[in-house]
Each structure stands twice: as structure tokens, then as C-alpha cells.
Design a protein that fits this description.
5-stranded mixed beta barrel, alpha+beta, RNA-binding
Length: about 475
RNA sequence: GCGCGGGUAGCUCAGUGGUAGAGCAGUUGGCUUUUAACCAAUUGGUCGAGGGUUCGACCCCCUCCCCGCGUACCA
């Protein structure tokens, strides 16, 4: 049907897929800063049309927004009018040359003097009122979601602006953005299963990075003092509402700082984003009907509490129990424990289920057990804990921050302890770098996707990642 | 991986062991200030795939595929 119109356009001497068209305004920008009587040239896709015999209204737009156009037969001429009626469909691209005006009903619009055809759409757009509701279509064909759901457009435009703002926030504080390898010989810096690939010319396996940490620290050794990297990490693990196999991570390192300065930096940055993009520090998450389901209060200063105190809040005698008693108590508290859990892992699971997942307002968890964080410095007064924070907001870990471990001998020992059961191999090149001297430093990581979820009120990571990973459909 | 829910027209959704439905989109006609335009008519289906039960299956049973939620894995 629409293909027939391609032929009709050709007969009319009109290029079905258009070309250059100079514009004076983006549709949304024109609508936002409307001024009457302006000569304008606007291009966009037609999203709806209302015909009335010899005149019509239609809406054109793009990611910037939409604006209404008025067109009538007498002014554009019979030829263009006939093309508009017979060959132009919802979804097609057109250019409009005309003047801005306000309709009887008060709608800021463009009065078309000329209409230029700029591109044919061979398939119909989704329902104009409901948009795309099918999750699978939203994720597999994100373009249809963006075209038909205002909310999705908002989230992704906001994400883009927030990421740009993070970069500018850090560069204003003299942090330099750097790029380190995504393909690594040893996938270090975290404990996660990596994706494996193979380099033919070098004849060696390579791993997609699970974290940039060990390379960023090499740069501290090399004399950089304030650096960050904001890019993708890859982890070959399960998918969930909070996990996508590739996700965006910010890591920043600051020489001669410690984890508390890093906490201040992160607190300041997240509050800045909330004030700039979310209208303040009280965030409301809403369901599809617009009812408030959750409120997150980012008012400063954010609480800083030790890991052990938080667990004592669950059970004040938690650390007085024997490991066997803790295992039993975890069961009583309804926390499922795997078969070969170490004692600290039992405690960590109780922490995750009964503290982390219930914590919506920001909380810096400090003095975490050293087993959990082998790349951080031990506390000088109690070497069973490390000088770190784990920032929890919205029931999720949003950001860890460390006083970075820079003693190569201790670092090797700590990684060896860890490597026992984990697959992690020691990155000898990293240890070698540390032996050349890494300055004391603070470091942070921020899971950007989860941060965006928290700030935009998205329930699933798939709603803040443009193309989330899905299973390949049979036959496609 | 396991458990629960889902897959019906391009989109949003109803539906029943006995001829497959609505709204929007599309098509045709009418209408020169509409905005979920309106009025009239009309086209459109592998009911996720395959097998089974039945006189008859979109519906019941089995297997598989995909999506969602939960769970497991996850510094």
C-alpha cells in the first residue's frame, strides 16, 4: 500500500527519500520559544493529521518535541495538496516553509506556505494514543518506543544530558578523562566472570574488561593526579532488572585524597544532578498511573554509618555469635544462604537483604570487611576493615569509594587470598606498576545506569539503556 | 538454571470447546481553525511454533521459542 505511494511520488517527480533541506528551527525548540509571525523552515516526521476537506492540521516533530502545522489547498497549490492528501502518510518526513501563528484555539502553530517531501515510511507507526506497550518491542525496536512514548524520550534525553553534566562537573574540578583498554589480558579490578574473545594476529585470548580500575591506577603511577573514565564494562553474568551484561561505569581517582573526600565529591555531584535535572533533592518515583510509589530524599549531609553498626541494627548481637549461630540466625531472618558460604559471605547476604535493599535514602556504609574489598586500604586502627564507603540509594549499591591500596606487597597478598576460590588471576603487570610507586589516592566507581534509574525513577535498567541485551529471536 | 505470568489484526486490547471481535492506524467518500478532529462506508488474522486429545481446538494436554516478574549466579 505504502509502496504504491512510492511509485506515485516518482510519477510526480518527487524524490521518495528526500535530500537536503535547510531548517531554521527544531520543531520542539520552536514550540518552546514560540514567537508569532516568524518566517520558519522546519523539518520532521508527521505524527498525526486532521483533515478537513480543503485544509488540514498535522503535527511534525522529532526528539526535540512537536509542533502543529496548518496547511490549506489554496495556499500550497493543487499539486502539493494532492500529494499531501494522496501520498503523504503519518510517519513520513516533510519540510515546512511558512510563518508562525496562533490558532483560534490558542495552539502555537506554523502556517505552511510550502511543503517539501523529505522521506517515505513504509511501515505504519505504533498506536498514536497508547504508543508501544509491549516490552519486547520497546527493547528490540527502541526507535518505535522513542517515536511513540514521551516518557521514553524524556528518560533518554535526560540520561544524555546527565552524562554530559558529569563530565563537565569533573573537568571543572581538574579531572582528566582518559581511555584505557576494554580488551584485557587479565580481567581484573572486580570479581566477575568476563566475556572471552580471541585476537588472531597475536594468537592470544583476551577478555572484555569487567572494570578499568587496574589501568587507571597505572596512570596514577605515571603521574596523573586526577583522572576519570566513563564508559562500558562487561560482565558475563545473569540479567535482571538491575543487571545488563554491558553497563556504564564511571571510575575516578584523586591522588592524595581519601575515601571521605571521595564521598564528599560523589555526594556533591549527585545532588548537583538532582537539582539541575530533577527539580530538587526530593525525588518522587511514580507508577504508570502517576501515583507516587517511592520518595527519595537526597538532602545533605548524607548519613555515614559503619557496616557493623548497620548489622547490629538488624541483630544487636550479630557479631557476638559464632559462625554457626550466624548461619542459623540468617535462616531465621529469612535470608537464603548458599551451601559453601564463608562466614563473611553469610554476613554480607544478611546485609544485602536486610539493610541495602531496604535503604532508599542515601547512606554511606563505611568500615566494610576487608574480604569484600581487596583493592582498598585497611584501616590503621582495625585491619579487619577497609577505609571505604559503599553508597546505597534506592535499595541498590550506586557507588563504592576507597582509600586505594598502594602497598604492592599487601596488594599481592590480598589478591592471593581472594584468588583462592575466585577465578581472578593476579595481574602481575599491575603489581609491577605498584612497585614503581602509586601515590596514596581516593577512588570511586559509580554505576551510571543505576544512578540514572534512581534519578529518573525507572524501575528497570532496560528502561535507561537504549538497547538492552535480549535473547536472539529464533529465525531472525 | 528454576518458579509464576504472558504471546490474538501494523499498534492497544477483549474473547469462547462450535462462523475470530473493538478502538486506533489503513482504504474510499464528505468537510477551510482541528488537536485522541468529526461523519459514513470498508480492508485487514499462521490466535508465538510444532505435536496430541476431540466430530470439532485460539481455548484442553505435551514439547519448544520469545518477553516480563521473582529466584539463583553476581567485590
Amino acid at each position: 500500500m505504502r509502496r504504491d505511494k512510492l511509485e506515485a511520488l516518482k510519477r510526480r517527480g518527487v524524490s521518495a527519500f528526500g535530500g537536503k533541506f535547510e531548517i531554521s528551527h527544531d520543531p520542539g525548540a520552536l514550540k518552546a520559544a514560540f514567537e508569532e509571525g516568524l518566517a520558519v523552515r522546519v523539518a520532521g516526521r508527521i505524527f498525526s493529521r486532521r483533515e478537513m476537506g480543503k485544509a488540514a492540521f498535522f503535527d511534525i516533530g522529532d526528539i526535540s518535541g512537536r509542533i502543529q502545522v496548518y496547511i490549506n489547498k489554496k495556499e500550497v497549490g493543487d499539486e502539493v495538496w494532492e500529494m499531501f492528501i494522496k501520498e503523504v502518510d503519518i510517519g513520513d518526513f516533510v519540510g515546512v516553509i511558512g510563518k508562525t501563528f496562533v490558532t483560534k484555539t490558542g495552539e502555537n502553530s506554523i502556517h505552511a506556505e510550502q511543503l517539501v517531501f523529505l522521506g517515505k515510511t513504509l511501515r505504519p507507526l505504533p498506536d498514536k494514543w497508547h504508543g508501544v506497550a509491549d516490552r519486547e518491542i520497546k527493547y528490540r525496536q527502541r526507535y518505535l518506543d522513542l517515536l511513540s512514548n514521551e516518557r521514553s524520550r524524556e528518560v533518554f534525553v535526560t540520561r544524555s544530558r546527565m552524562v554530559a553534566e558529569i563530565r563537565s562537573y569533573l573537568s571543572q574540578r581538574d579531572f582528566l578523562e582518559v581511555e584505557t583498554p576494554m580488551m584485557q589480558d587479565v580481567a581484573g579490578g572486580a570479581a566477575a566472570t568476563p566475556f572471552e574473545t580471541f585476537h588472531n594476529a597475536l594468537g592470544m585470548p583476551l577478555y572484555l574488561r569487567i572494570a578499568p580500575e587496574l589501568f587507571l591506577k597505572r596512570l596514577l603511577v605515571g603521574g596523573f593526579t586526577r583522572i576519570f573514565e566513563l564508559n562500558r564494562n562487561f560482565r558475563n553474568e545473569g540479567l535482571s532488572r538491575r543487571h545488563n551484561p554491558e553497563f556504564t561505569m564511571l571510575e575516578a581517582y584523586w591522588a592524595f585524597a581519601d575515601f571521605e573526600q571521595m564521598a564528599d565529591l560523589v555526594e556533591g555531584m549527585i545532588c548537583h544532578l538532582a537539582e539541575k535535572f530533577c527539580g530538587g533533592l526530593k525525588l518522587e518515583h511514580k507508577d504508570e498511573e502517576g501515583n507516587v510509589t517511592k520518595t527519595i530524599d537526597l538532602t545533605r549531609p548524607w548519613k555515614r554509618t559503619s557496616y557493623r553498626d548497620l548489622l547490629r541494627g538488624v541483630d544487636e548481637k550479630w557479631f557476638d555469635y559464632t559462625p554457626e549461630e550466624r548461619l542459623k540466625r540468617a535462616g531465621e531472618l529469612g535470608v537464603e544462604i548458599g551451601p559453601n558460604f564463608e562466614d563473611y559471605e553469610v554476613t554480607q547476604h544478611v546485609f544485602e537483604k536486610l539493610v541495602e535493599e531496604k535503604q532508599f535514602n542515601p547512606l554511606f556504609v563505611t568500615r566494610c570487611p576487608k574480604e569484600l574489598v581487596p583493592l582498598a586500604k585497611q584501616n590503621p586502627d582495625d585491619d579487619s576493615v577497609v577505609d571505604v564507603y559503599e553508597l546505597v540509594i534506592n535499595g541498590q549499591e550506586i557507588s563504592p569509594g576507597y582509600s586505594e591500596l598502594n602497598d604492592p606487597q599487601v596488594q599481592r597478598a590480598r589478591l592471593m587470598e581472594q584468588a583462592g576460590e575466585e577465578i581472578q588471576k593476579i595481574d602481575e603487570e599491575f603489581i609491577l606498576a605498584l612497585e614503581h610507586g602509586m601515590p596514596p589516592a581516593g577512588g570511586i566507581g559509580i554505576g551510571i545506569d543505576r544512578l540514572i534509574m534512581m534519578l529518573t525513577g525507572a524501575e528497570s535498567i532496560r528502561d535507561v539503556v537504549l538497547f538492552p541485551q535480549l535473547k536472539k529471536k529464533a529465525g531472525s
